[in-house]
Write a structure and sequence with these properties.
The protein is an alpha/beta fold. The protein has eleven helices and eight strands. It has a single domain, classed as TIM Barrel (Alpha-Beta Barrel), CATH 3.20.20.
Length: 248
């Protein structure tokens, strides 16, 4: 069964719109876990627009002792220290998550919108991958379904790839959907044949998830934005269960 990791960035975004700690990110993580979430994902950025370093540390304290729940911290491996943001790699090494997903995003991006071009960044990424793997973390790279790039991901030592599913979601209900789905299917098959695990994320929702989850080698999906929107209408408990039902 494909694992469900809940991204809590949007819970933190709502919290940050007011003073104080309401809604409480850790409490919502616990609620997700209590109702079947297989993992918790956060994406701390230097501008701290949503998840803050303190959230990452508190979530690590909650999730790390749980053998059946994965803590996944994702972000730009080249993000430097800014004010009380210690730098992405430094933060990850402090909290030691189960999985670290490296993403090529900058502060000027509204959200992650493309995978790595490893022809230009592979040499810089390899020692980072080696460094994190030596500490026991699973290292995943955020990737487009480009077969040549998938081969490069394997060559620099990635344990997994996370397929960027934004174009798949955008094509839902159009004639472009099937060709894009087939690209992801081929990329997943290649990654598996090269010994890497396959994750996926970005704009997956209750409408488009079942088809994507039919990819045989798909290990994990990370869902945040749609999950939060669905929770407004359905309640968070029912939403976790709905996504788990689709994946199960």
């Amino acid at each position: 069964m494909t694992a469900l990791s809940i991204n809590l960035n949007k819970i933190a975004l709502i919290r940050n719109s007011r003073e104080g700690n309401y809604p409480n990110v850790v409490e919502h993580a616990q609620l997700c876990i209590n109702n079947g979430a297989d993992g918790i994902t956060v994406h701390p950025r230097p501008d701290q627009r949503h998840i803050r370093p303190s959230d990452v540390r508190e979530l690590a304290e909650l999730v790390s002792p749980l053998s059946n729940v994965e803590f996944n911290v994702e972000g730009n491996p080249f993000a430097p220290a800014v004010a009380d943001y210690p730098g992405f790699i430094e933060l990850v090494e402090q909290v030691q998550p189960d999985q670290c997903t490296l993403v090529p995003d900058g502060d000027d991006q509204l959200t992650s919108d493309h995978g790595f071009d490893l022809t230009s960044s592979g040499a810089q990424l390899k020692p980072i991958i080696d460094r994190l793997k030596a500490q026991g973390m699973t290292v995943s790279l955020f990737m487009d379904p480009d077969l040549a790039q998938i081969e490069l991901a394997a060559s620099i030592g990635a344990d997994r790839i996370e397929l960027y599913t934004g174009p798949y979601a955008a094509a839902w209900g159009t004639d472009d959907l099937e060709p894009i789905f087939q690209q992801h299917l081929a990329a997943a098959a290649l990654a598996t044949s090269l010994g890497m695990g396959v994750n996926a994320g970005h704009d997956l929702n209750l409408d488009n998830l079942a088809k994507f989850a039919s990819i045989p080698s798909l290990l994990e999906v990370s869902i945040g934005h749609a999950f939060t929107v669905d929770s407004l209408a359905m309640g968070m408990v029912n939403t976790v269960r709905a996504y788990k039902t689709l994946l199960g």
